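Curious: explain these tokens?
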Amino acid sequence: MADRDDNVILKGGRLYQQWVVDSYVKIEKDRLNFCRQNQKTLRSDTYQGLVDHLQRRANDADSQVGKMVILPSTFTGSPRNMLQNYQDAMAIVRKFGKPDLFITMTCNPNWTEIKENVLLCQTASDRPDIVSRVFDIKKDELINDVLKKKLFGEVCAYVYVIEYQKRGLPHMHLLVNLKQNSKILTSDAVDKYISAEIPNRQVDPILYNIVLRDMIHGPCGNWCKDENGKCTKKFPKKFQDSTLMDENGYPTYRRRNTGTYERSNGQMADNAFVVPYNAYFLKKFRCHINVEIVSSIKSVKYLYKYIYKGHDSASVIVSNAENHNEIHHDEIRNFIDTRYVSPVEACDRIYGRSLQNKSHSVIRLPVHLPNQQSILINDADNEDGLRAALERTSMLVEYFSLNRRDPEAKIYTYGDIPTHYVFKKSLDSNRSMWAKRKTHFNVIGRMYSVSPTQSELFHLRLLLITVKGATSFENLRTVNDQLYDTFQSTCLALGLIEDDQEWDRALTEGEIWMMPRQLRHLFVRILIYCHPNHPEQLWEKFKDAFSQDFQRNHNEAESYKRAYAHIDTLLMNERSCISAFATMPQLIECETDIDIDDVNDNQSSLETHVSMGRIQYNQLNVKQKEIVDKILNVAMSTDERSSSCFYIDGPGGSGKTFVYTTLYHLLKAQGKSICTMAFTGIAAILLPHGKALHKTFGIPVPLFPDSVSNIKSQSKDAEYLRNVDIFICDEAPMAPRSALELIDRTLRYLMDNDSPFGGKIMLLGGDFRQLLPVTPNATRCNGELNDNDNNLLPPEQCIASNADDIVEVIFKTVIDERRFGDLAKTAVLAARNVDVDEINGKAIELLDESTERRYTGYKS
């Protein structure tokens, strides 16, 4: 775009920003439309599937069910693209080891180059095109300093990613691998390149001002604090007289306590608030540049996962068609719904700039069984087109062909081939094949990961990692001139899967690129589907990797317990448990999520429920018995058409809680499963084994009309809800409409029953009289002050050590002086009925038994 004084668009301010974003969104929409429309004509199938298709094409012309729209990994910024780039980066880690430096560079809107090129009265935000160009130039210059000027030494590999803050400014994350002779291994070497202290003002005033302006953390806002109000970045840091290399990958930099404070961004700061930096970078680029040492492999996955985090949400639509469900999975819609585009990002994308780059190209190698390679076919193809598709080959098949014609290739495994050969079309035919590489040797090969549940494919991949020079699938299955029937038996003959080595290798490889939660899921799949001989040895070897995410907030032992408990939870979701594996350590103190209701029920015998139910039933009045009898008849009835929803209304003190308790014991005596709950925690503790409504049904906070439950359909919480026969919910009027609607939707879904609450018996209770009047859209100014004289002054001493002290202070004097009028106005407020019964009992003991008189009434 020409930068002329008469260019009206450049003077548009926010309107110009919107125009830039709209222009790029149009471009992206066209690309997304191509992906959507292309899926209607192109389908990926296996070779064998295509052969079957040729034989029955006329019968299978319209065999697709449901709708699945995929956003491919070739679309920049898509979740699949981020995942593939992350795994590509981890392939570089496998070859060169952990990175040595983690550098973050953030754009400075006050750069001289920006201010000198914006128009009069404009700010950097008004010209995202200039911000984009200047940051790109400075980003390239910083990379040039690292790679060519060798500021930190010889570089063997690097990865960088460009991201955009919500306010629009871009920043770069750069990970650098240094050659062995340039490794930063000592504290002195760290201090040479990185500082975490405020420089001396007299010695270097320029650096002093830059550090105070750009490298002081804080002041912390709510976004920077955890639930305990502490800084999530662990500031202020501890003072340290010398640099220490932390074994977990987070070095402790030198931060000497000078006893002086400097003013920065409205706060007083010392060395404890300094973000680590490189002095040369700060003085050259005049912006926030955080430089960190990566001292351990343990932190590598978090760094690479952080720079390739991408989007984190999902969108699934379920519709009903002809009495059966069709599941529609639309990744394009999900990408659009959660998309955020800033003006600077729009400019970068319009200019065609790459959002990430690596020192090495990574070739992704497919792994497939014989005649199961993926190919693309068009529904409109004729027979010749389909036959031509059969002749197309794959990288794996051509790898076998290469070993047959080129003896030099036999010294390499499948994963090593891309470093020495290039896959391209032959000049003699239209067929792609491997040819010897003549230039550009910065190439790494990586095979796509395979789940252990795909047993044959998993063992084929294991063979391709190990065996060199294979000429065919049959040759790969041949050991000592003996052809084995399966790839798994071949691995066994080679000793690759003896003593659980195959699962050890799977977890070892997964440890490199998987996050701890994913690794625990992989371990659970291995336990359930692969039946390792010694699962306890796998746990002992990888328990550090399994528990890495817990180690940030817990000590080592607690982290192991939490990881082990999560593995047990995952097993229960798969209808298994730790106890099914006899050699595994059994859960004792490792349990962190125990259902209190189940524990307490085990302590209450059937006889206790029968006895308590009979006693309490006899204490009910006539109306209460009618309610209890009605619900008991429905609960014991086999007629599914009978009404299953009830509401008990009554003012405070009318006995609603007593009715709930009576029903609980009577139904427990009949072997029924009851869930008691209330909208508030205080109300819930009055019920036997009562729970809060939010926890029981996974109600999210905040709650919206279209919110969904956090409970997954295959979880143990969902299984618990399915097994409940009667739900009792107190204080239902206090629950918002959205909460009850969410409960209704959740139970209908879990029970696959369109009746109210999924056909479950639902007993709601409460008192609408206790709800305060609500004035819609009113403010605090519309309230009325309580200006009457009915004020209560609490006594100076309000704490009693036990119930006896309370009774003595409140009741004894009044009773001894026989001031029964005052006694009628005296009360102790307690949260639980059991406390009320105890205090009343103590007070009655103070009465004179000789003057006791019993009063009876027709109705109580």
